[in-house]
Amino acid sequence: MTRFDEIADKALAGEQPTRDEALAVLASGDDELLEVIAAAFRVRRHFFGRRVKLNYLVNIKSGLCPEDCFYCSQRVGSGANVLKYSWLKTDEVIASAEAGVAGGARRVCLVASGRGPTDKDIDRVTDAIGAFKERNPDVEVCACLGLLSSGQAERLAAAGTTAYNHNLNTSGEHYADICTTHEYADRVSTVTAAKEAGLSPCSGLIAGMGETDEDLVDVAFALRAMDPDSVPVNFLIPFDGTPLAGQWQLTPQRCLRILAMVRFVNPGSEVRLAGGREIHLRTLQPLALHVVNSIFLGDYLTSEGQPGAADLAMIADAGFTVEGAQAGHEAAAGSGEAVPTGSADSAHQELVQVRRRGAGTGLPANT
User: Fold this and answer.
1) CA 367, CA 355: separation in Å to the nearest integer?
2) What residues are labeled active site?
3) 140-150, pLDDT tens digit by residue?
4) For 212-232, how does the pLDDT look when each residue is reduced to its tens digit (9 = 90+)?
5) Helix (H), strand (E) at residue 141
6) For the residues of 6-24, what is the DSSP string, one character each?
7) 337: which DSSP letter?
8) Which residue, 344, 343, 290, is CA-closest to 319?
9) What's the rounded Cα separation, in Å, for the pair 194 and 164?
10) Domain ranges of the chain
11) Which numeric CATH code is attached to 3-326?
12) For 224, how many CA atoms within 13 A lie in the half-sphere containing its CB?
């Protein structure tokens, strides 16, 4: 048994790891990485089996935010060349959300830039949510609209909203280093208000913003204290034109250790692999599925993700199943039996490419 198995045993017994144990996960060496992942997988499997929940983001209002969050491409004064548009119409919201549902998403996340919604904005969003739920009653809806005012969370809940997302992002001590237009306590208050209104609380973090290991552990423990149902873990996308442009501090191994630490500290929460996974985890993305049980399908708010079909293939190739997939397929995949693939064989055959370059040809070799 490794020292990381001991942390996993505590998580499975409902015990909180110590700060030193959480820090030890982050400080572990690359030679121990598979031990860390294996221990985290025991916790993940206990609570969520081999299921992966798909979530889909819809940016219903993009850019031109008055807040100065240093990591954000939509911040005030941002020079990032991202899409900027005002509120989407209800039919546009529904069309975008249903595209995600068609791809396999069990939850759609409606996100709007800004400090927080006005009551008129809440009218607009609740109308869209109500119309979407009429057509898709079994699909969860998460709203992410910024800081909420009194009564707004209750109105969202009454309209059929499942969850509310508002990330803590980093530790309270580090917060002033990444934002000056609102405070850490404002974020805590909004998550608390959403939870009290009956919305499923969704709150997570962003890694790679110059934080220390202690900051990462602090925010993980702060999240545990708030008991969110979902914990999205983002990795900084350092857009040109933002104060954190050029911050490439993360390695794939570092990202995996962060995910494992969050899993140990929040064992029963839906830990979601979120923004930045493609550019920081790169070819090690499949390993992260042994730690997390949820991902965003397709694109993010202002950046593109890998194709949705590639996400689905990654999940299947790693031996996991999409939550809500056909029961027969899921049972067969979980047992290691062959899953009927229909036209999959022909798709696989397309992967076989006859060599037409390099030795024996006049074309450059593949180097």
Assistant:
1) 13
2) 65, 69, 72, 109, 142, 202, 272
3) 999 999 999 99
4) 999 999 999 999 999 999 999
5) strand 140-144
6) HHHHHHHTTPPPPHHHHHH
7) P
8) 290
9) 6
10) 3-326
11) 3.20.20.70
12) 22
